[in-house]
Design brief:
There is one protein chain. 66% of the residues lie in helices and 0% in strands. The protein is mainly alpha-helical.
């Protein structure tokens, strides 16, 4: 039965309506006072108390039959409740949909000819309510605020089709010609609340600005990833001019720097990165992008300095500021993943980037020190467990040991390289007898990686190189021979195994196996030459040629 207030019947008593409004306003003022409280535990408790106050007030209102005069206050209370709940949870929960749906049905209950539509979908409910609101103009400000919260939820859950339809309905005829969400958001003009209306934690105009900023930023990032650089630039500039918090502005400026660098405008890119650094929050994103920019410009010193500062920034402890008791842009943005140009990674990943870059540009001594620091950092964090699994996008622990040993050899620190190799062997050699089981597990989809023979073989190869540097040919030949024995024992496994176990790691492929054989044969051959064992040297060189001919692509560097 419809709960519409019949014409001529008395409205709810003014004193009750005033009481509900005053209670709402009191809770809103209380929440704004809490925002300035610096003691986090006390602040959290007060905020929860305020949320409970809104909840009780809402229960009282929704426990009565829906009535047109009360609906503006009721919708304002549900909006305040949702805003505070989302801000405290720092995210949208599934039951918020039910809260919005219940409120829309309460509006329809006041309209007799629309009561039969209560079983509609959420999108259909919105269409019915917004068309009914033409008969209820006093409801428009509160309905637009609730619509803003619905839009925020749909943007966060990537329901962009539903969001576009909602915005078209909100805009009326002026928005129906376009499905571009950015244009629809710009066209949306929420009505201004009356001076005597119930107070809100956040008004519809603020939500619209946040939605506009969040969507422009998301679109800009997506276009940056797909390579639509001019469109990305326009959307990111739109986001930068919007309602951004300081951390989001750092991200937007950094993304603008990335976009301009890719567009071949490094000087403008650098200006945005400088602005991002001036903001003074977490500097890791602009520092990572600065390293890429300086690398593109060929400024190696500035690139390495940026990477060193990046390691420091990621390792620093940042004091977390209590979030505003509002819906902010951050809550509408998806978590950054590894495909994002703004993914910074961990301190160890940044340290590895610095170490490997030093090695690439022939700063062997710096590379060696950075690798040793990296190993110490990772071992402190991972003990007593020694992880064999790679941590994308970085290499596995054994591969880091191998890279470190190679860097130490190039830095003429052969004895230190031997120490690193011995540490690696002590952690991996015990797995060798289990290789048949590991390979069988790999075929069955197990996460354990059958890379051990290659890791151990590569370790013996590097030990041989280290002994060459130490002028110990006998030990060098012994290590190269042990490396070759392991490699010739190894049998390339099924092709699907390599395809299913991260070819980027280069550990299980036939090519890697052959590369190691070639390197070990040539290395041992060179030792034979230096020791005047020419026949043995010739034999190793001929075997290396045969191994090279088996390679589909020659891509190794001795």
């Amino acid at each position: 039965m419809s709960q519409q207030t019949p014409p001529g019947s008395p409205e709810p008593h003014t004193s009750f309506l005033q009481l509900w409004r005053e209670k709402n306003d009191q809770l809103v003022r209380q929440a704004k006072v809490i925002q300035d409280t610096h003691l986090s535990l006390r602040r959290q408790q007060l905020a929860q108390d305020t949320l409970e106050g809104f909840k009780k007030l809402l229960w009282g209102l929704q426990g009565l039959p829906a009535a047109v005069p009360v609906l503006p206050v009721e919708l304002t209370v549900i909006c305040n409740f949702i805003i505070l709940r989302v801000s405290l949870a720092q995210g949208f929960t599934d039951d918020l949909v039910q809260d919005i749906q219940r409120s829309l049905k309460r509006v329809l209950e006041t309209q007799e000819h629309l009561e039969s539509r209560l079983e509609q979908s959420l999108r259909e409910l919105w269409d019915s309510v917004l068309h009914a609101s033409a008969l209820l103009p006093d409801l428009l400000p509160a309905l637009h605020l609730l619509a803003g919260l619905q839009a925020a939820l749909w943007l966060r859950t990537d329901q962009l089709g539903d969001l576009a339809v909602l915005l078209q309905t909100l805009n009326g005829s002026q928005g129906r010609t376009s499905e571009d969400l950015l244009l629809l958001l710009k066209a949306w003009k929420p009505p201004v609340e009356k001076s005597d209306a119930a107070l809100t934690l956040q008004n519809a105009q603020s939500l619209r600005a946040i939605l506009l900023t969040a969507f422009a930023y998301q679109q800009g990032l997506q276009e940056l990833i797909t390579g639509s650089l001019p469109r990305a630039l326009g959307n990111l500039q739109e986001a930068a001019s919007g309602l951004c918090t300081r951390p989001v502005l750092v991200q937007v400026y950094t993304a603008l720097g990335t976009c301009l660098r890719k567009m071949g405008n490094p000087q403008r890119a650098l200006l945005y990165l400088i602005e991002a650094l001036k903001i003074g929050t977490d500097c890791s994103l602009p520092l990572l992008e600065a390293s890429r920019l300086y690398r593109q410009l060929g400024d190696t010193s500035a690139e390495l300095e940026s990477l060193e500062l990046l390691v420091q920034a990621l390792s620093a402890t940042h004091s977390s500021k209590s979030p505003q008791l509002l819906i902010e842009v951050e809550l509408l943005l998806p978590q950054s993943d590894q495909a994002s140009p703004l993914h910074c990674g961990t301190p160890s990943q940044a340290k590895h980037l610095l170490a490997s870059r030093c090695l690439q540009i022939k700063r062997e001594e710096d590379a060696a020190e950075h690798y040793l620091d990296l190993l110490a950092l990772l071992l402190d964090a991972s003990e007593p467990r020694f992880s064999l699994l790679p941590c994308p996008p970085g290499p596995s622990m054994p591969e880091l040991f191998l890279e470190a040993a190679a860097a130490l050899i190039q830095a003429s620190r052969a004895q230190d390289a031997l120490t690193v190799c011995e540490e690696l062997l002590s952690r991996t050699s015990s797995l060798l007898p289990k290789m048949s089981q590991l390979q069988e597990s790999a075929r069955k989809g197990s996460k354990e990686l059958p890379y051990c023979p290659l890791w151990v073989s590569a370790t013996h190869l590097l030990q041989g190189q280290a002994w060459v540097h130490l002028k110990s040919p006998k030990e060098a030949v012994s290590e190269f021979s042990w490396c070759l024995e392991l490699l010739f024992r190894a049998t390339p496994k099924d092709k699907e195994q390599g395809a299913g176990s991260s070819c980027e790691q280069g550990c299980s492929s036939d090519v890697t196996l052959q590369q190691l054989r070639v390197a070990a044969l040539i290395s041992r051959g060179l030792v034979w030459v230096a020791s005047d064992h020419d026949t043995k040297a010739l034999k190793d060189f001929l075997l290396s040629v045969q191994a090279i001919e088996m390679l589909p692509i020659i891509c190794f560097k001795l």
